[in-house]
Amino acid sequence: MVAKITFPRFVIGALNYNEQKVQKSVAECIGAGNVLSEVHKMNFHQKLAVFENLNALNERASTKTIHVSLNFSPTEKLNKTRLMAIAESYMEKIGFGEQPYFVYQHLDAGHPHLHIVSTTIRQDGSRINTHNIGRNQSEKARKEIEQEFGLVPTEQQKKELVIRSINAKKVVYGKHETKRSIANVVNSVINQYNYTSFAQFNAVLKQYNVVADRGETEGRIYKHGGLVYRVLDEAGNKIGVPIKASAINSKPTLVLLEQKFEVNKGKREEPKQLLKKILDEVLQLSPASMQELMGLLAKKNVYTVLRQNEEGRIYGITLVDNQNKAVFNGSEIGKAYSIASIQQHFYKTQPLTKEMEERMQTQSVTHNPAFHQPSQNQPHFDEGKDVQKDNLLQYLITPEITYENVPAQLLKKNRRRKKKDRNL
């Protein structure tokens, strides 16, 4: 069982999140604790009043709401009676056994899980101390409950709860509600993954057709440190109305992300070694091309992003390890995993055929940059040096595929430049 605790600023947000799931038939309020009315007869406002009446007793407390999620292995089949028993035991063990709370079973993920909403304010107006509750009370309760109910241990379950278990499938514009779909993706990614840059954060989001956008460098949003989130179509183009970071319940603003970058920097070594092991296993299979490498990594639940500059040259590789929830640039893992080294790996394992030798001889002159311009669709690996025989061989055997579209703005600039040249 994996337990996660958050402290929303307002109880109405946490309660509304679960109640809207109920309205969409992807969740059910299966019970409550220390509430006099029958839960299935209570409406949203009655449930909200239970908490607001207690919260009003303490005006000084800044943290009054606790929102817990209990996540179980996809292999576990737990009925409502057993889920309620687990919820009651957990709340008792973390010190909330006498507090009112509502228990929701969510049905929109690949694993069974519960959400519990409660208040930190007691009947006498005092506040329950929640300092280090996740590390202390919750961790102790989790271990005891796993043994008591025979649940899959957290260590094993974390390997099972990959990103497909978050509330978001790929966001499809026009098919899903934009704001809620974006929020589902962002809320799950922002706390689950280890990333240390804006680009790495976006590498995770783009798997789900979502992107964090700071706007144009000369624009108002960028200058004021703002951030919006947008839906991407299948071609990677931004579509639909942008959603402000401040409008999402977890407030995933640029300031929060920068704080995450710093915190995550101290937690990189273990996930880096795990990803290195995966890369070594895949490279030992001697993939013959970038496409084959990406396919093999995908089978290991690793998503690959090739970084490309404005001229269309691929200068780096980013790897999203969805199993261990971490993002790394290839060069961060080691020199042997940079884009240049990985490229070298492809053709070192390939025999030099007579046909390749003939092609190399034929193109040895025309490959000179003074006589030859590569195809616009040909991916270019910028090694920062003159083309040698090995690089020429790779050029000859690399399929003519582009991994990312050339930005439209760049194409427009080219056209304007050509027009200007004709006027000279």
Automatic annotation (TrEMBL):
Residues 17-151 form the MobA/VirD2-like nuclease domain. It holds the Pfam family Relaxase. This is Relaxase.
